[in-house]
Structures are given as C-alpha cells and as structure tokens.
Design a protein that fits this description.
The complex is a heterodimer of chains A (about 150) and B (about 500). Chain A has about 150 residues and is mainly α. Chain A has helices spanning about 5-30, 45-65, 75-110, 120-140. Chain B has one domain (about 1-140, about 150-495). In chain B, a hairpin with a 6-residue loop joins strand 1 (about 185) and strand 2 (about 190-195). The chains are: A mainly alpha (about 150), B mainly alpha (about 500).
Chain lengths: ~150, ~500
C-alpha cells in the first residue's frame, strides 16, 4: 500500500509508540497509581502516555485520508560521523585528555562534511584544542584532564 | 513611579559595576557572533555556556545569558542583509527587503536602521518590563496550585497556536516533552521513574542535553545534508547613518514593530520569530503603497527588526513574574536560575531585587553597547562570514561537547545528547516542531507537582480547576484559543502568516 501522507503517518506512529510505551512501563514496573486526591508516581505519566498514544493514533488515521509530502532520505553520512564523533569524545576524553580528544573530535566529524582536507582539519583541530584549553580549563577552571592519563 | 525610580537606581548600582559591564559585554558580543553565523542559534549557545556559568555569581551569569539572546537578534540582521541568509530564524523576513537594499548599494542604511530600530525597541521594551513586572508579580502571588496548572496549560496551548506547522503534531510534541520531563525521581514519593535502573537517569534527563541535541546537533546534520552555498554580497556597505528621509519613512514602522513585538513577546509561545513575521505582515497590510515590499522597502527592515528585539526583551516578563518560560530560550534561563539555586517566580523580585533590577538595567545597557559596538564592528562580522561551514561546524561541536561533558563530568550526558541529536533530526524530517517539546520538557515536573497539590487541596475533585475564577478564566482562554485555531478560516490565515512571500 502506498502511504498518502508519509510525514504525518510516521509522526503518528512515533507518538503512538512512545506514548503507549510510557503507559505500559507504568503498569509493567507497577508504579503506584494512587487516587485522584493522592496521586502516586504512576498517575500523571499514565494519563499523559495514553493521551499521547491516542493522539498518535489519530494523527496516523488522519494521515491515511490526507495527502502530504514524502519523507526525504536520511543523511546517514553526517548522522554517523557527527554523532559518532560526539560519542567518541564523551567516552574517551577522561582517558586521552582534552587536548587529544578535541583533535580526534574534529577529525572524525570532518568525515561528515562534503570534503575532507586532512591538513586543514588537523590545523583546525590543533587551534581549537589550544584555544579551548586556554578558555575552558585555564580561564573557566572546568575540571578536564589535559593530557592522556597514561602519561601520568 | 517613585518605587520604579528607586528600583531602577538599585538596578543601575548592580549593572554598572565593572564586572557586570564586562559580562554584559561578553554576552552581547557572543550573541552577535552566533547571530551573525548561520547554523547556530541562541538556544544551543546558551545551553553550551550554562556549565561555564556555574562558578559565576547569579546576577552575572543571567546578565551574560540575557545578552546572548538579544545580541543574537542584532547579529542575525547583519547576515540577513548582507548574505541573504538569516543568521537567526527571527531575521528571515529581514532578508527579504534588507538584501534588496544591499543590492541597491544601501546596505549601510539597512544595517543602520536595523540597529537603531532595535535599540529603540529595546529601550521601550525594557521600560515596559520594569513597569509591568511588579503588578504582574502581585497577581502571581494570589495563584494557588490550580491557577498555576491552568496557567501552564494556557502557556502550552499558546505555544501550539503560535508555532508554525500542524497543530495536532505540535500538541503531540508538547505531550512528548511533558513525558520526557517526568523521567527521573518523583519528588513526592522519592520513587525513580522510567530510569531502567540506570543510575544517571534517576536525576532525570538533563534539559541541556535535550536542548543541545535537538537544537544544536540536529541542526548541524541538517545543514550538512543541504550542502554549502553561501554567497556574500558586500561590494560596498555605504554610509551607516540613515538619511532624514529614511528616518521619516522608517520611524512609524519602528513604532508599530515595537508595539507588536512587545505584545507578542509576552505571550507564551511567542518570541522573536513570531514577532518579526507578524510585524512584516502588518506593515505590508497597512502600507498605502506596498509594491516596494520585497524590493528593498526600508519599512520591511525597520518593523521586523524592532519587533524581534522588543519581543526578545518582553519575553522575560512571564519568566520573571510567573516563573513560566514562554519560549525555549527562556526555558534555558529557568535552568540557569535553578542551577544558581534561584526558584523562578514572583518571589524573585522581592527576595532578590538586586538580581531582578540589575538584570533589567543591564538589558538597557546591553542594547546601548550593541548599537555603539556593532556598527563600527560590522567589517569584522563580515570577515567572519567568510569562514566556511566545514571549519565552523567542528568548532560548534567542540564547544557543545565541552559544555555537555562538564555538566556532570561523565560520558553519560554526552551520549544522551548525541541520542537527542538523532531524535531531533528525525523530528525535522517529520516536520515536527521541536520548540513545544522543550517547553513541555521544562514544564512537565512543574505541572505534575501543581496538579497533585491542587487535587490534594480539593480532595480529589477535578472541578476545582473550573470553580476557582482565575483558574477557570485561564482554562477558558486556552479552550478558546484551541477552538479558534481549529476554525478553517483562521487556519488559512495562520498558514499565510508563516509563509514568506
């Protein structure tokens, strides 16, 4: 079957799945519901989750009756390299220190762009690294290790 | 009147210290910088800088963060006029006539009128803020939990109405935001919810992570997807000071823009973007000869630029008097205040007068700084525009990563932010507006808290929301708004208002 309004259809699916998931989790983990006058931790999320779920279904059904735009293809290249670079930074900065982590971040994220110029990105990485350490570590005293921990 | 003067005097005594002036200047410069650069907005910048303000005094950090917001409104117009790309979403309409003026060799005049109009609007809106805040805060003291719940409902509904795009999807985004806001420990029972036994999640999802992922990373991915095309049009900026003739033509537009912007800024869900769009539409509607709009009419620059700056200032009113953020930037300001140990709300004014009035006065000083600094510095901003995006986005990423990581010094927040980057990108793909999500996210716990308290006070009777007059009024307005927006005629109008032609 051809979807007539894919953007709305998938939005509806997203809202329905997330909404009902919240409601199901409330039941599954047995968060106490309480009463209307003494609401437990499960009450508000359960009501909200179901509301969102139903709303999602409405959007989904409505999308079958209207015509709308297609969802354009996902740009996997920037998604993978940009978000990957961020995750790598988060996981390694304590180990390899801020100086190196910034250069790595810049180099990995550069693959997400349209052209990769190693020299240019290396220079950018080094400049950003020195600048950020000066501002954030020495200036604002944020507690980052500068050098790799295995250097002592 | 006397009280106002003595309050302003107190504000001047705070805002005129060398330190306060310095941070105001830093905020304004940073704001202009990110305003000039397309692809990074005030939400991501403020989120990025929040950790850096931990160690500052509360006044200083709020003065700086406020400067970023209204500074961005100034900077955004520069890019719009010179490059025909809005540096900020609020200067989309400025590009229409501003760029045309630049092509006719009147770039300087356009920049000048944008700056002067913004300054005028900033002054008026700041005065309005100073005058309107105390009485509003008095009303807010009468609010009980039921009123607060209804007020937040109104705020969220207004956010839906004023957001562009599908109303029903915007409601979905709000509900989603509310739910995400509930992740973490429940204040009443101390029970951890939706944390899946991950210890970091029992404190809830950090709003910086959400804001930066959805507004920062997602934006970068989208920009990279579109590819780089930026053509800078600066053969000659020309003289900056508008001629008397220009001034005469522009002044009424500045006045109207200021009025409309101030009003729309106060409304929940409003803010700079909506203000500039509406001001432009209004000018076009009432102009005797509207044939020049889109071809370099000075009114098309003056009105939206005044409006967006006025709105940026007055959107502080609901935040400072009611503790309720009307837009995502203000939602981040709530976060900044909470980090500093200040509970936003009407009591800020009476308990921390030096913070409240210092901030207001600093806004006026900041506006003055922006006019004085930015006109001569325009050459420097133009240079910055020549930095290609492939060098710019790694820098944005670096600052974002440092900002998120230092929230709790753990990799966890960074990974979560990356996750929200992906989610935010999917939202963009599905035409789901992220701004209502962030508002819901901030208001989620507050709404639950007030709902519970209201229901406890009424012994479980939900009628409490409609039998209390103030609460009933607020809910009635929300309902009315929803009905109006669903009417087909209005719906069409609303779509028109957001279309740039």
């Amino acid at each position: 079957m051809q979807l007539r309004n894919p953007k709305d259809f998938w939005s509806g699916v997203m809202f329905a799945v997330i909404g009902f998931a919240f409601a199901i989790i409330v039941k599954l983990y047995e968060y106490p519901m309480g009463t209307a006058s003494r609401m437990g931790p499960g009450y508000f999320p359960f009501v909200l989750g179901n509301t969102l779920g139903v709303l999602g279904l409405v959007i989904l059904l409505k999308s079958l009756l209207t015509r709308g735009e297609r969802v354009s293809a996902l740009a996997w290249r920037p998604i993978v390299w940009i978000l990957g670079a961020v995750v790598v930074f988060g996981l390694t900065v304590k180990l390899i220190g801020l100086a190196l982590a910034i250069i790595v971040l810049v180099l990995i994220s550069a693959f997400g762009g349209h052209e990769f110029k190693l020299r240019e990105q290396l220079i950018a990485g080094v400049v950003l690294s020195i600048g950020s350490i000066a501002v954030f570590v020495y200036g604002l005293k944020l507690p980052f290790p500068i050098w790799p921990s295995f250097f002592g | 009147m006397e009280a106002l003067l003595s309050n302003l005097a107190l504000g001047f005594s705070v805002a005129f210290t060398p330190e306060a002036l310095l941070y105001c200047l830093i905020g304004c410069l940073l704001g202009t910088l990110i305003g000039v650069l397309p692809g990074i907005g005030p939400v991501a910048t403020i989120a990025m800088l929040l950790p850096a303000t931990f160690t500052l005094a509360p006044e200083l950090s709020l003065i700086m963060l406020a400067g970023i917001y209204y500074g961005a409104q100034y900077g955004g117009s520069t890019t719009a006029i010179l490059v025909n790309i809005p540096g900020e979403s609020s200067s989309v309409v400025t590009a229409l006539d501003g760029y045309q003026m630049a092509r006719r060799g009147k770039a300087g005049t356009a920049l000048g009128i944008a700056a002067l109009g913004s300054f005028f609007a900033g002054c008026v809106a700041t005065l309005l803020l100073a005058a309107a805040a105390p009485p509003l805060a008095q009303i807010a003291f009468k609010f009980g939990p039921a009123e607060y719940f209804s007020l937040m409902t109104l705020g969220l509904i207004a956010a839906v109405v004023l957001a562009h795009g599908s109303v029903i999807k915007a409601i979905g985004m709000i509900l989603l935001g509310l739910l995400l806001g509930l992740v973490g420990t429940d204040v009443n029972s101390g029970m951890a919810r939706f944390n899946f036994s991950i210890p970091e999640l029992s404190d809830g999802i950090g709003f910086v992570a959400v804001a930066m992922g959805v507004f920062g990373f997602a934006e970068i991915i989208k920009n990279l997807e579109q590819g780089e095309e930026r053509e800078i049009f600066v053969n000659k900026v020309g003289r900056l000071l508008p001629s008397i003739q220009d001034m005469k033509e522009a002044f009424p537009a500045v006045l109207r823009g200021t009025g409309l912007g101030s009003l729309l800024g106060i409304l929940p869900g409003g803010g700079a973007v909506l203000a500039s769009f509406s001001a432009y539409t209004l000018e076009k509607k009432i102009a005797k000869d509207s044939s020049q709009f889109g071809k370099g009419d000075i009114r098309g620059v003056a009105a939206p630029e005044s409006a967006n700056n006025a709105a940026a200032q007055t959107s502080f009113i609901p935040l400072l008097t009611l503790g309720i953020p009307p837009n995502p930037v203000m939602a981040l300001m709530v976060g900044a205040m909470i980090i500093q140990g200040i509970q936003p709300g009407p009591q800020v004014m009476s308990e921390k007068p030096q913070l409240f009035w210092g901030m207001i006065v600093s806004m006026w000083i900041g506006n003055l700084m922006l006019v004085i600094l930015n006109l001569p510095l325009i050459g420097m901003w133009i240079k910055l525009l020549t930095v290609p995006y492939r060098l710019l986005y790694p820098a944005i990423l670096v600052f974002c990563c440092i900002g998120v990581y230092s929230l709790s010094n753990s990799p966890f927040d960074v990974v979560i932010t990356a996750g929200f980057g992906l989610v935010g990108y999917l939202f963009l793909k599905l035409d789901c507006e992220p701004a209502p999500l962030l508002l819901g996210f901030i208001l989620g716990p507050m709404m639950e808290e007030n709902l519970r308290r209201a229901m406890l006070l009424s012994r479980g009777d939900p009628l409490t929301f409609v039998t209390r007059p103030l609460s009933a009024t607020l809910l009635a307005i929300s309902l009315l708004l929803l009905i109006i927006i669903m009417l087909p005629a209005i719906r069409k109008k609303r779509e028109e208002a957001f279309v740039e032609d």
